[in-house]
Amino acid sequence: MTPFDDPAVQTAFEAFPEDTRSGVLVLRELVFSTARTLPKAQPLNEALRWGQPAYLAPKGSTIRLGGHKAASFALFVHCQSRLMGDFTTAFPGEDRLDGNRAILFDDPDQIDETRHGWLIARALTYHL
Q1: Rounded Cα gap, residues 14 and 45, in angstroms
Q2: DSSP of 61-122, one letter per residue?
């Protein structure tokens, strides 16, 4: 597991209910592993945004992880970006979505490294 640099972020993860925490920790690792594979190395900043763990790259769009009222956990992207539209075009009908802002999950086994890694990579390089 990637160590936490910010104690506030670690505390936010620890505060999640267990079913949410187990899923968002898997997504967190996918964010970090995806960032390491990007050809143009983007320094990744992990911080809290709206009380949720968020991942920011200098030329990227923010990714947030957290709970959701209709699912155990979710991966959120900026709702005014093209990210979710591009994702649903590339992977139609593959995931349960909350409009153009989130992919919803009920179990960590639903996380697909290829599909969701594709979205994460697009978000981290959105403005390149």
Answers
A1: 19
A2: --EEEEEETTEEEEEEE-TTSSHHHHHHHHSTTSSEEETTTEEEESSGGG--HHHHHHHHHH
Distance from chain centroid for Cα 47: 13
**What 8-state DSSP symbol labels residue 2?**
P
- Which amino acid appears at position 119 of this protein? L
Q: Is 114 exposed, middle or buried (0-12, 13-18, 19+ CB in 10 A)?
A: exposed
Q: Global pTM?
A: 0.95
CB of 91 within 8 A of CB of 101? Answer: no
What does the DSSP 8-state code read for residue 125?
T
Spatial strand order in the sheet of 45-49:
45-49, 52-56, 63-68, 71-77, 102-105, 96-98
pLDDT in tens, 22-47: 999 999 999 999 999 987 666 899 99
